[in-house]
Amino acid sequence: MNLPLSLSGQTQTRKAEHLRICLDEDVQFAQTTNGLERYRFIHCCLPEINRDEINLRTQFLGKSLSYPLLISSMTGGTEFAGTINRRLAEVAQHYNMAMGVGSQRVALEKPQVAATFAVRSHAPDILLFANLGAVQLNYKYGLDECRRVVDLLQADALILHLNPLQECIQARGDTNFCGLLDKIEKLCGKISVPVIAKEVGNGISATMATRLIDAGMSAIDVAGAGGTSWAKVESERAENSLQRRLGMTFADWGLPTAECITTIREVAPEIPLIASGGLRHGLDVAKAIALGADIAGLALPFLQAAAESEAALYELVEVLIAEITTVLFCTGTANLQEFKRSQVLQRVK
């Protein structure tokens, strides 16, 4: 697909601005939380297990992971983003965690930046997710482009991200979402890898999850409210007062992550489910898994650590592992399978 240079340049500039704003500005939800504070673990004062023998291994989309952690989709398309992705891939390989990259649209528009996404050489064994905006299926993208981004990464699955609010606020956003579900269904029937539906921070309802699963989605990433507000991010990038006002008005729009997990699990008990959206530490991860998620994705904590140094990134993962392990130990559960079966979480509000 040959696109105007101006369009590819706009996309690359947007990528750089998104990174800067997420790192330097306060773009977190101000009032809406991820909902996990409404739950508390039942403490076990006598675990009768050895903490050193706790096992955090799990399976997701047929691949074994040492920890139930996903480095959520964030970036790519600039030199700095390439450095971030390399560091993230190396830590994912070291700890055998899953990883997604940011939207690869810019790599299709501007092939010379494709290398900033291509992390497989740094992480030959990880569960790796390619990523495109679902709305691009209405803007001349199709099966060929989806295959190309998967091939670029040698990815194990393709994320189709859903971001209607962000597109409403973004300058020159792509807001034609008509007929997308039918196009998604056709894509899922033809592409050779699993397809994952992912919001970008406003959540997926049980009703929409059911429709997406019926259309052929192999997994759902709820990406609920409570973390980074992309309405706020786009407000920071606004080119006029209307966009700025829209971004601030809808800064707290969305479904809390905890609500997405529980309601989707009620209607789809077997679907592979990723919890993301405002998860900031291992206690959040453990709560999300206890509520029904299979793995948990974090973005901002990984981005902040990767931007600082490789050492900070490894330190973050060690802390996350220690926090999740401590939850299992203090609830008397020796592995994730037992943890998910046990009724160790109670609602307190």
TrEMBL record:
Substrate binds at R14, K15, S103, Q104, R105, Q166. It catalyses: isopentenyl diphosphate = dimethylallyl diphosphate. It is found in: Cytoplasm. The keyword NADP applies. Residues 16-104, 181-344 form the FMN-dependent dehydrogenase domain. Its main location: cytoplasm. Keywords: Cytoplasm, Flavoprotein, FMN, Isomerase, Isoprene biosynthesis, Magnesium, Metal-binding, NADP. FMN binds at S72, S73, M74, T75, S103, N131, K198, T228, G278, L279, R280, A299, L300. CDD domains: IDI-2_FMN. This is Isopentenyl-diphosphate delta-isomerase. The gene is fni.
